[in-house]
Each structure stands twice: as structure tokens, then as C-alpha cells.
């Protein structure tokens, strides 16, 4: 969840300031965070952990 929030913050800052790099990094963090969250919610262990907090 922290990764998704950080991605949202970077995405918003990138859009407001006009920096494409921050927008791209924010989008990637949101995507990876959502994938890890979904895998953790289904009970599948990712990287030796069942939950990503």
C-alpha cells in the first residue's frame, strides 16, 4: 500500500511540475504496488512473504 501511495504522490507532483520522469516513475510504482498487493491478497507468497505492508 505504501508503494501505491508513493507512486500517486510522485505522479501528481510530476504532472503539476511537468516532469515526465517523475510521472513515469510514479506510474511504474503504482503498477508494481498493485500487482504485489493483488498477489499478496490471493495468498500467493511473493519473494518469501505472504503479505506486503
Order of helices and strands: HH
Q: Any idea how many domains?
A: 1
Strand content: under 5%
- Helix-strand makeup class: mainly alpha
Q: Rg, please?
A: 13 Å
Q: Assembly state here?
A: single chain
Mean pLDDT, as a whole number? 85
The description of the largest β-sheet is: none
Number of strands: 0
Count up the helices. Answer: 2
Calculate the terminal CA-CA distance, rounded to whole Å.
6 Å
Global morphology: elongated
Low-pLDDT segments: none
Q: Helical percent range?
A: over 70%
Tag the structure with descriptive keywords.
53 residues; mainly alpha
Brief digest:
Keywords: Membrane, Transmembrane, Transmembrane helix. The protein is mainly α and 53 residues long. Helices cover 72% and strands 0% of the residues.
Give the arrangement of secondary structure elements.
Elements: H1 2-17, H2 20-41
Helix pairs in contact: 1-2
Protein name: DUF4337 domain-containing protein
Organism: Streptomyces anulatus
Transmembrane segments: 6-39
What do these coordinates show?
The chain is an all-alpha fold and 53 residues long. The chain has one domain. 72% of the residues lie in helices and 0% in strands. The protein contains 2 helices and no strands. It has helices spanning 2-17, 20-41. This is DUF4337 domain-containing protein. The chain crosses the membrane at residues 6-39. Keywords: Membrane, Transmembrane, Transmembrane helix.
